[in-house]
Amino acid sequence: MLVNVRETIRTTLAHRGFRKYFANTAWLFAEQVLRIFAGLLVGVYVARYLGPEKFGLYSYALAFVALFASVAKLGLDGIVVRDLVNTPEKRDQYMGTAFWIKLVGAILAAIVITVVVVMTENDYTTKLYIGIIASGLIFQSFEVVDFYFQSRVLSKYVSICKISQLLLSSLLKLYFVSVNADLFWFVLVSVIDQASLAAALAYAYSKQKHDVFYTKFDKGVARELLISAKPLIISGIMVSVYSSIDRVIIKEMLGVREVGLYVAATGLVSALYFVPMLIANSLFPAILNAKQQSEEIYNKRMALLYKYILPFGLLVCLAVTFFAAPIINLLYGENYSDSSMVLQIYIWNFLLICFSAIFGKWLLAENQQHVSPLLTFIGMVLNVISNLVLIPLFAVRGAALAAVLSQLLTFILTFVIHKHLSKHLLDMLKTWGFKG
């Protein structure tokens, strides 16, 4: 039996398709890990240099633009990749059409941002920073090159482009810190990030020796793409609001300094999210295989996931809650001491993310992914309401509390609305020793 296992492993490793997909995944994983760690380390260094007020202003400008960024993307990402895989002979039509659609979307987003920001009571400097960051949306049209490489399982080239862009961005930020540069230059880096990535993607595509795609535009393809993308556009808008509205509300109610304190703490927690996501993504094929074998094996594997990931999440939450003050002081310094209270509350979102990572895969395995848009919508509404209610009561800590409560209430309401999902909740509780 051992010989058979070894032979199976040897055959699998020698298979050309396996090597291709494994290499593709390895490049994507390496790029993500580098982005998380470089972003965290350089981000902390920059935040410490800028101080809570300037860092808060920078974070607010980014969040303001992020509210409208989904308009520039137009939900085309997965759809274009799908169509390039299914009809590779129409490569130039799909890429060229998607390029121009995304360019028009970026221009529309920039116009909307300009109109909205003019109507706000922000000072000239804040409006200028928002305008600078918004101008970078135009370069997102070159994401169609990324879609092409994804369709050909050649993400190595995209990862190299993104790693190069990450290196340039990090070096520029470190240089600006070393010369005591003004906040303006750090804001400018956000545009350089977009432009340099676009240039790198364009160069990588030119090395493929294909025809120039941006001269192609097909009205029929454009109509087809936009119709397919309509649900994803709506979903993208909800995600943008859900992920950015808290920083905007904090600024309007409390000021930019509190935004800096909030982002300093939440950024640390967000950096941890890749752990449960990576585990869930890695084990998802095993879950699907178990479902094909038998329901009993499938349920056992799901239970094991909860049994190990949730206690891990709980342990992380308890440790960070206890050591929040020294963690913030070590990384950010005394100017961010108030961030420790935010971290003590917001870290509990990590436990909910641990549950969400597994629950999301369960929804896919059970073909219940139609629940996800409802989850996003409920979460968005609850997040906005919670922030508006809790921030006046508890200041910046209220925003952290709103994030945790809205996530928790979203799951509770989802199980109440979709009663057929309650069985999964009971299975999860059983892994903690509860008897249903």
Question: Could you explain how this protein is built, in words?
Answer:
With 436 residues, this protein is mainly alpha-helical. It is 84% helix and 0% strand. It has 18 helices and no strands. The longest helix is centred in the first third of the chain and has 51 residues. The protein is globular and about 60 Å long.
Keywords for this structure?
436 residues; disordered N terminus; mainly alpha; single chain; 84% helix; 2 domains; 0% strand
Structural class: mainly alpha
Q: SSE string, helix = H, strand = E?
A: HHHHHHHHHHHHHHHHHH
Q: What Rg, in angstroms, do the CA atoms define?
A: 23 Å
Give the strand tally: 0
- Give the strand content: under 5%
Distance between the termini: 40 Å
- Contiguous runs where pLDDT drops below 50 for at least 5 residues: 1-6
* Rounded mean pLDDT score: 82
Shape summary:
globular
Helix content: over 70%
Task: Please outline the major beta sheet.
Answer: none
**Helical element count?**
18
Number of domains: 2
Topology diagram in text:
Elements: H1 2-14, H2 16-66, H3 69-73, H4 77-86, H5 91-119, H6 124-135, H7 143-151, H8 155-178, H9 183-206, H10 219-253, H11 256-270, H12 274-293, H13 295-332, H14 339-346, H15 348-365, H16 371-394, H17 396-417, H18 422-430
Task: Describe the structure concisely.
This protein is mainly alpha-helical and 436 residues long. The protein is 84% helix and 0% strand. The relative contact order is 0.10.
